[in-house]
Amino acid sequence: MSQTAVLTAQFADAVARGAVRVIDLTQELSPDTPTLVLPPNFGQCSGFKVEEISRYDERGVAWYWNNFTVSEHTGSHFDAPIHWVTGRDLPNNATDTIPPADFVAPAVVVDVSAQCAADPDYVLEPADLEAWEARHGRIPARSWVLQRTDWSKRTGARTPIAARTVRTRPARRPRPCASCSSAT
User: Fold this and answer.
1) Measured between alpha carbons, how far is 65 from 73 in angstroms, rounded to an integer?
2) Main-chain dihedrals φ then ψ at residue 166, nearest 5 degrees
3) Could you tell me the residue ranges of all domains in the chain?
């Protein structure tokens, strides 16, 4: 058996035994799922819509299935580097060209939920990463850095993200923290 097969089997066993903690970050999509609202001069994101194709009836007696429409930036999703102008010219910048190995890595969670509760436009700052590293140690190279905002607790059409059309201050690209390198 190859080393990859052995490691895969060991990993699957560890997940099954609960020795590896797997956290589901997905959120259920529904017509109440907030969507990004851009200024009126830009194209707009579609809200989540479901159209039933069949449900074990004359339209399809043996199956239940749907069409759905949703903006690619709704709910839990992954933004490939190509999404932003800063990643436009990077190699392997789309989801179909990113090496699959890059999707499995250790992760750290930087909790800024209190800041986001106080300021819906809160932007992760280098100081947040430096504070995390002061408490937990350096962020390992090639790790995923996840930002906890608790926006998942906000649902429905009255959430701030759906109600505002423009941020109250422009988002900015944070500088990396002092100890972070381009390899992280």
Assistant:
1) 23
2) -140, 140
3) 105-184
73-106 per-position pLDDT tens digit: 777 667 788 888 888 999 999 989 988 888 888 8
Q: What is the pLDDT of residues 37-70, one digit of tens each?
A: 788 898 888 888 999 999 999 999 999 999 999 8
Torsion sign, CA atoms 150, 152, 156, 157: positive
83 is known as an active-site residue: yes
What's the rounded Cα separation, in Å, for the pair 161 and 156? 10
Tokens 């992280």 correspond to what residue?
184
Residue with tokens 């750290």: 108
Candidates 74, 70, 84; CA nearest to 36 is 74
- The count of residues in the chain is 184
Among candidate residues 73, 77, 83, 136, the one labeled active-site is 83
Report yes or no: 67 and 51 within 8 Å, Cβ to Cβ: yes
Predicted TM-score (pTM) of the model is: 0.64
The Cβ of residue 14 has, within 10 Å, a number of other Cβ atoms equal to 13
